[in-house]
Design brief:
There is one protein chain. The strands form three sheets. This protein has a three-stranded antiparallel beta sheet. It has a three-stranded antiparallel beta sheet with strand order 6-8-7. A two-stranded antiparallel ribbon has the order 3-4. By secondary structure, the chain is mostly helical. About 45% of the residues are buried. Mean pLDDT is about 85; it is low at about 180-200. Helix 6 (about 145-160) packs across helix 11 and helix 9 crosses helix 11. A hairpin with a 2-residue loop joins strand 1 and strand 2. The protein has helices at about 15-20, 25-35, 50-60, 65-75, 130-135, 145-160, 165-195, 200-215, 220-235, 250-260, 275-295; strands at about 40-45, 45-50, 80, 85-90, 95, 140-145, 240, 245-250. The protein is globular and about 55 Å long. The protein has one domain (about 15-295): Chloroperoxidase. It contains eleven helices and eight strands.
């Protein structure tokens, strides 16, 4: 660890590219580092970032998704490399580790698009075949949320190490939330799931249950990761819906996963925690349904 772990590191283009590819295997955080919007601190081989920086970037555009990103950063990436090369040294206060493969947030049953072995440090790499598997679900330049749920189910079944326990609880929670949002109307949903820092008790309780389940159930963890992607683009100008379903554009996926950049204007539109809750639960419903169907075949 550097003498001052909070010190920003000046990385060459090649060093930054290596950190993003091997370590920061998240399309959102990796793009922020690649663009230079999220500063790398401490050391290139033991990179850290500021929790408050990721909070501010996620909250850009007037939303509060950054508060959720800060929560996950502090909870899942609270350990950095120690002398023996393992992620078992607590990070200093207000920082989080950019070593994503091998961290608490890395899990079996992942997509394979940006990392290999989820337990091995520096296992990040881009996999065109796995990315193509995701794009195979696209129609007319977009991928529906339910089709991403199918992709999640496929990933879990491809990995015998994946943990899909307590599926009924996850589905019930997802169903309750979606039923509330779909039937209560926008005014009541806004009241209950309002994205203010002191938002409704129902919103907080659901968020707490979801975040707890992401660490216990790989299906929920994957849904939460893709839920962040959908929450990120939910309010993008011109965002499309197909038969009422949210979608993500293929061009945006290519920009983030391949180009390591965020879509133009990303900092101007609102990104909210409530969009993460509703999209994660929507993905849970479709992924659980597809998982059961595929497993029975």
């Amino acid at each position: 660890m550097a003498d001052n772990p909070n010190q920003i590191v000046a990385l060459s283009d090649s060093e930054k590219a290596a950190v993003v590819e091997k370590k920061v295997t998240c399309p959102f955080v990796g793009s922020l580092v690649a663009q230079g919007d999220l500063a790398v601190r401490n050391e290139a081989n033991n990179p850290l970032a500021s929790v408050e920086d990721i909070r501010a970037l996620g909250n850009s555009g007037g939303g509060d998704l950054g508060d959720l990103l800060a929560f996950f950063a502090a909870g899942n990436h609270a350990f950095m490399r120690a002398a023996e090369g393992k992620l078992n040294a607590p990070v200093p206060a207000n920082l989080f580790s950019l070593e994503l493969p091998g961290s608490q947030g890395s899990h079996p049953g992942h997509s394979g698009m940006l990392q290999g072995n989820p337990e091995a440090l520096d296992s990040g790499r881009f996999s065109q075949p796995d990315f193509d598997r995701l794009l195979s679900h696209a129609q007319d330049g977009v991928i529906k949320r339910s089709d991403v749920g199918r992709f999640i189910a496929e990933n879990l079944l491809r990995d015998p190490r994946s943990k899909v326990a307590d599926l009924n609880t996850a589905e019930l929670l997802a169903g309750d939330v979606l039923n509330l949002v779909e039937t209560a109307g926008s005014a009541l949903a806004s009241k209950l799931f309002g994205s203010k820092p002191d938002g409704g008790t129902t919103h907080r309780n659901v968020e707490e249950k979801l975040t707890k389940l992401t660490g216990e159930n790989n299906l929920v963890g994957s849904a939460g990761e893709f839920g962040l992607l959908f929450a990120f683009v939910a309010n993008k100008p011109g965002a499309k819906k197909v038969h009422g379903e949210p979608t993500v554009e293929v061009d945006d996926l290519k920009t983030m996963f391949v180009g390591k950049r965020l879509p133009n204007g990303w900092e101007t539109w609102k990104k909210s925690r409530v969009d993460w809750v509703t999209n994660t639960t929507g993905l849970l419903v479709s992924a659980a349904k597809e998982y059961r169907k595929l497993k029975s075949q």
